[in-house]
Amino acid sequence: MIVAFYVAAGVAVLSTFLVILQTNAIHALLYTILSLLSVAIVFFSLGAPLVAALEVIVYAGAIMVLFVFVVMVLNLSPETEGVDRAWLQPRTWTGPVILTLILIGELVYILMTRAGLTLEGAAIGPKQVSLALYGPYLLGVELASILLLAGLVGAYHLGRDALD
Amino acid sequence: MAEIPTQYGIILAAILFSLGIAGILIRRNIFFILIFVEVMLNAAGLAFVVAAARWGQADGQVMFIFILATAAAEVAIGLGLLLRLHHLFKTLNVDQASDLRG
What we know:
The structure holds two protein chains of two kinds.
Chain A: H1 2-21, H2 25-45, H3 49-74, H4 76-85, H5 90-112, H6 126-133, H7 138-159
Helix pairs in contact in A: 1-2, 2-3
Chain B: H1 6-26, H2 30-55, H3 59-89
Helix pairs in contact in B: 1-2, 2-3
Protein backbone atom coordinates (compact mmCIF):
# COMPACT_ATOMS: atom_id res chain seq x y z
CA MET A 1 0.00 0.00 0.00
CA ILE A 2 2.88 2.34 0.75
CA VAL A 3 4.59 1.48 -2.53
CA ALA A 4 1.31 2.13 -4.31
CA PHE A 5 1.19 5.60 -2.78
CA TYR A 6 4.70 6.54 -3.90
CA VAL A 7 4.39 5.07 -7.39
CA ALA A 8 1.01 6.74 -7.96
CA ALA A 9 2.36 10.04 -6.60
CA GLY A 10 5.31 9.88 -8.99
CA VAL A 11 3.07 9.12 -11.94
CA ALA A 12 0.74 11.99 -10.98
CA VAL A 13 3.58 14.53 -10.77
CA LEU A 14 5.21 13.32 -13.99
CA SER A 15 2.02 13.30 -16.04
CA THR A 16 0.96 16.74 -14.75
CA PHE A 17 4.38 18.05 -15.72
CA LEU A 18 3.99 16.54 -19.18
CA VAL A 19 0.63 18.31 -19.64
CA ILE A 20 2.52 21.62 -19.64
CA LEU A 21 4.67 20.55 -22.57
CA GLN A 22 1.91 19.33 -24.87
CA THR A 23 0.78 21.40 -27.84
CA ASN A 24 -1.89 19.00 -29.02
CA ALA A 25 -5.13 19.43 -27.05
CA ILE A 26 -6.06 15.75 -27.01
CA HIS A 27 -2.59 14.72 -25.82
CA ALA A 28 -2.80 17.21 -22.97
CA LEU A 29 -6.22 15.82 -22.01
CA LEU A 30 -4.89 12.26 -22.00
CA TYR A 31 -2.04 13.20 -19.67
CA THR A 32 -4.49 15.05 -17.42
CA ILE A 33 -6.77 12.01 -17.22
CA LEU A 34 -3.71 9.93 -16.32
CA SER A 35 -2.86 12.38 -13.54
CA LEU A 36 -6.42 12.23 -12.17
CA LEU A 37 -6.44 8.42 -12.21
CA SER A 38 -3.15 8.25 -10.31
CA VAL A 39 -4.51 10.71 -7.73
CA ALA A 40 -7.47 8.32 -7.37
CA ILE A 41 -4.98 5.55 -6.56
CA VAL A 42 -3.41 7.87 -3.98
CA PHE A 43 -6.86 8.36 -2.42
CA PHE A 44 -7.36 4.62 -2.29
CA SER A 45 -4.00 4.09 -0.58
CA LEU A 46 -4.94 6.74 2.01
CA GLY A 47 -8.06 4.82 2.99
CA ALA A 48 -10.65 6.92 1.16
CA PRO A 49 -12.30 4.54 -1.31
CA LEU A 50 -15.41 6.66 -1.83
CA VAL A 51 -13.57 9.73 -3.08
CA ALA A 52 -11.28 7.49 -5.15
CA ALA A 53 -14.32 6.14 -6.98
CA LEU A 54 -15.85 9.63 -7.22
CA GLU A 55 -12.63 11.03 -8.65
CA VAL A 56 -12.64 8.43 -11.43
CA ILE A 57 -16.37 8.69 -12.16
CA VAL A 58 -16.93 12.43 -11.90
CA TYR A 59 -13.56 14.11 -12.48
CA ALA A 60 -11.92 11.84 -15.05
CA GLY A 61 -15.17 10.47 -16.39
CA ALA A 62 -17.41 13.53 -16.74
CA ILE A 63 -15.38 16.73 -16.50
CA MET A 64 -12.56 15.57 -18.77
CA VAL A 65 -15.07 14.13 -21.22
CA LEU A 66 -16.63 17.60 -21.32
CA PHE A 67 -13.24 18.91 -22.41
CA VAL A 68 -13.06 16.24 -25.10
CA PHE A 69 -16.47 17.31 -26.36
CA VAL A 70 -15.26 20.90 -26.70
CA VAL A 71 -12.21 19.71 -28.65
CA MET A 72 -14.51 17.77 -30.95
CA VAL A 73 -16.91 20.70 -31.42
CA LEU A 74 -14.29 23.35 -32.10
CA ASN A 75 -11.79 21.16 -33.98
CA LEU A 76 -9.09 22.36 -31.63
CA SER A 77 -6.16 20.07 -32.35
CA PRO A 78 -4.67 21.58 -35.50
CA GLU A 79 -5.12 25.13 -34.22
CA THR A 80 -3.49 24.83 -30.82
CA GLU A 81 -0.22 23.52 -32.19
CA GLY A 82 0.81 26.80 -33.70
CA VAL A 83 -0.27 29.25 -31.02
CA ASP A 84 1.57 27.82 -28.05
CA ARG A 85 4.74 26.58 -29.73
CA ALA A 86 6.13 30.10 -29.73
CA TRP A 87 5.34 30.34 -26.03
CA LEU A 88 7.28 27.18 -25.22
CA GLN A 89 10.62 28.85 -25.99
CA PRO A 90 13.08 28.72 -23.07
CA ARG A 91 13.15 32.45 -22.47
CA THR A 92 9.37 32.38 -21.95
CA TRP A 93 9.09 29.59 -19.44
CA THR A 94 12.28 30.17 -17.46
CA GLY A 95 10.74 32.80 -15.20
CA PRO A 96 7.57 30.94 -14.21
CA VAL A 97 9.48 27.67 -13.74
CA ILE A 98 12.06 29.26 -11.43
CA LEU A 99 9.37 30.92 -9.33
CA THR A 100 7.39 27.68 -9.19
CA LEU A 101 10.45 25.76 -8.05
CA ILE A 102 11.02 28.32 -5.31
CA LEU A 103 7.38 27.89 -4.24
CA ILE A 104 7.65 24.11 -4.18
CA GLY A 105 10.92 24.24 -2.24
CA GLU A 106 9.42 26.62 0.29
CA LEU A 107 6.34 24.45 0.81
CA VAL A 108 8.44 21.29 1.18
CA TYR A 109 10.70 23.02 3.71
CA ILE A 110 7.76 24.20 5.78
CA LEU A 111 6.14 20.80 5.77
CA MET A 112 9.29 18.81 6.52
CA THR A 113 10.28 20.82 9.57
CA ARG A 114 7.11 19.96 11.42
CA ALA A 115 6.85 16.97 13.72
CA GLY A 116 6.13 13.71 11.96
CA LEU A 117 2.51 12.67 11.75
CA THR A 118 1.45 9.31 10.48
CA LEU A 119 -1.90 8.39 9.04
CA GLU A 120 -3.76 6.15 11.41
CA GLY A 121 -6.86 4.10 11.61
CA ALA A 122 -9.02 2.20 9.20
CA ALA A 123 -10.39 3.29 5.88
CA ILE A 124 -13.18 5.88 5.98
CA GLY A 125 -15.80 4.30 3.81
CA PRO A 126 -18.96 5.53 2.12
CA LYS A 127 -21.15 5.02 5.19
CA GLN A 128 -19.21 7.48 7.35
CA VAL A 129 -19.05 10.04 4.56
CA SER A 130 -22.77 9.71 3.92
CA LEU A 131 -23.57 10.13 7.62
CA ALA A 132 -21.47 13.29 7.62
CA LEU A 133 -23.00 14.59 4.37
CA TYR A 134 -26.60 14.14 5.47
CA GLY A 135 -25.91 15.09 9.06
CA PRO A 136 -23.81 18.15 9.82
CA TYR A 137 -23.16 19.10 6.20
CA LEU A 138 -26.73 18.95 4.91
CA LEU A 139 -26.80 22.68 4.20
CA GLY A 140 -23.70 22.30 2.05
CA VAL A 141 -25.39 19.60 -0.01
CA GLU A 142 -28.35 21.87 -0.70
CA LEU A 143 -26.06 24.77 -1.58
CA ALA A 144 -24.10 22.52 -3.95
CA SER A 145 -27.29 21.59 -5.75
CA ILE A 146 -28.20 25.28 -6.12
CA LEU A 147 -24.69 25.91 -7.44
CA LEU A 148 -25.09 23.16 -10.02
CA LEU A 149 -28.44 24.62 -11.07
CA ALA A 150 -26.80 28.02 -11.52
CA GLY A 151 -24.04 26.36 -13.57
CA LEU A 152 -26.62 24.62 -15.72
CA VAL A 153 -28.54 27.82 -16.47
CA GLY A 154 -25.34 29.76 -17.13
CA ALA A 155 -23.87 27.12 -19.42
CA TYR A 156 -27.09 26.88 -21.39
CA HIS A 157 -27.30 30.65 -21.80
CA LEU A 158 -23.62 31.01 -22.76
CA GLY A 159 -23.62 28.18 -25.25
CA ARG A 160 -26.93 28.82 -26.93
CA ASP A 161 -25.91 30.74 -30.02
CA ALA A 162 -22.13 30.45 -29.90
CA LEU A 163 -21.83 27.74 -32.52
CA ASP A 164 -21.75 28.77 -36.17
CA MET B 1 -2.03 3.14 4.95
CA ALA B 2 -0.77 3.55 8.49
CA GLU B 3 2.83 4.33 7.56
CA ILE B 4 2.44 7.08 4.98
CA PRO B 5 3.54 10.32 6.65
CA THR B 6 1.03 13.11 6.31
CA GLN B 7 3.67 15.52 5.04
CA TYR B 8 4.22 13.47 1.90
CA GLY B 9 0.56 13.63 1.02
CA ILE B 10 0.46 17.40 1.55
CA ILE B 11 3.73 17.78 -0.36
CA LEU B 12 2.20 15.89 -3.28
CA ALA B 13 -0.79 18.25 -3.19
CA ALA B 14 1.58 21.24 -3.05
CA ILE B 15 3.61 19.99 -6.02
CA LEU B 16 0.51 19.35 -8.13
CA PHE B 17 -0.85 22.78 -7.21
CA SER B 18 2.44 24.45 -8.15
CA LEU B 19 2.49 22.60 -11.48
CA GLY B 20 -1.02 23.90 -12.11
CA ILE B 21 0.13 27.45 -11.41
CA ALA B 22 3.15 27.04 -13.70
CA GLY B 23 0.89 25.73 -16.44
CA ILE B 24 -1.46 28.70 -16.16
CA LEU B 25 1.47 31.11 -16.33
CA ILE B 26 3.13 29.43 -19.31
CA ARG B 27 0.21 28.62 -21.61
CA ARG B 28 -1.75 31.29 -23.49
CA ASN B 29 -4.53 29.10 -24.80
CA ILE B 30 -7.73 29.37 -22.74
CA PHE B 31 -8.38 25.65 -23.18
CA PHE B 32 -5.12 24.71 -21.47
CA ILE B 33 -5.68 27.32 -18.78
CA LEU B 34 -8.99 25.66 -17.91
CA ILE B 35 -7.26 22.26 -17.74
CA PHE B 36 -4.72 23.62 -15.27
CA VAL B 37 -7.46 25.17 -13.14
CA GLU B 38 -8.90 21.66 -12.84
CA VAL B 39 -5.46 20.35 -11.86
CA MET B 40 -5.26 22.99 -9.10
CA LEU B 41 -8.72 22.17 -7.77
CA ASN B 42 -7.84 18.48 -7.71
CA ALA B 43 -4.65 19.24 -5.76
CA ALA B 44 -6.61 21.24 -3.18
CA GLY B 45 -9.04 18.34 -2.82
CA LEU B 46 -6.13 15.95 -2.33
CA ALA B 47 -4.89 18.12 0.55
CA PHE B 48 -8.34 17.91 2.19
CA VAL B 49 -8.50 14.12 1.84
CA VAL B 50 -4.99 13.68 3.26
CA ALA B 51 -5.93 15.82 6.25
CA ALA B 52 -9.12 13.78 6.76
CA ALA B 53 -7.16 10.54 6.68
CA ARG B 54 -4.74 11.90 9.26
CA TRP B 55 -7.49 12.68 11.77
CA GLY B 56 -9.69 9.70 10.91
CA GLN B 57 -12.71 11.84 10.06
CA ALA B 58 -14.99 11.98 7.06
CA ASP B 59 -15.07 15.78 6.87
CA GLY B 60 -12.24 16.06 4.35
CA GLN B 61 -13.96 13.68 1.97
CA VAL B 62 -17.17 15.70 2.31
CA MET B 63 -15.16 18.80 1.41
CA PHE B 64 -13.74 16.96 -1.60
CA ILE B 65 -17.26 16.16 -2.79
CA PHE B 66 -18.15 19.85 -2.55
CA ILE B 67 -14.97 20.77 -4.45
CA LEU B 68 -15.98 18.24 -7.11
CA ALA B 69 -19.41 19.85 -7.50
CA THR B 70 -17.82 23.32 -7.67
CA ALA B 71 -15.31 22.15 -10.29
CA ALA B 72 -18.07 20.63 -12.40
CA ALA B 73 -20.14 23.84 -12.37
CA GLU B 74 -17.05 25.95 -13.03
CA VAL B 75 -15.98 23.80 -15.98
CA ALA B 76 -19.42 24.08 -17.53
CA ILE B 77 -19.37 27.88 -17.26
CA GLY B 78 -15.71 28.09 -18.31
CA LEU B 79 -16.25 26.03 -21.43
CA GLY B 80 -19.31 28.13 -22.28
CA LEU B 81 -17.11 31.21 -22.02
CA LEU B 82 -14.52 29.45 -24.19
CA LEU B 83 -17.17 28.93 -26.85
CA ARG B 84 -18.11 32.62 -26.69
CA LEU B 85 -14.43 33.62 -26.98
CA HIS B 86 -13.98 31.41 -30.01
CA HIS B 87 -17.15 32.79 -31.53
CA LEU B 88 -16.04 36.40 -31.10
CA PHE B 89 -12.32 36.31 -31.84
CA LYS B 90 -12.03 33.10 -33.93
CA THR B 91 -9.01 32.20 -31.78
CA LEU B 92 -8.43 30.77 -28.32
CA ASN B 93 -5.43 32.93 -27.52
CA VAL B 94 -6.30 34.96 -24.42
CA ASP B 95 -3.91 37.73 -25.43
CA GLN B 96 -6.36 38.66 -28.20
CA ALA B 97 -9.00 39.54 -25.63
CA SER B 98 -7.03 42.47 -24.29
CA ASP B 99 -9.45 45.36 -24.80
CA LEU B 100 -12.21 46.31 -22.40
CA ARG B 101 -14.86 47.36 -24.81
CA GLY B 102 -18.48 47.57 -23.77
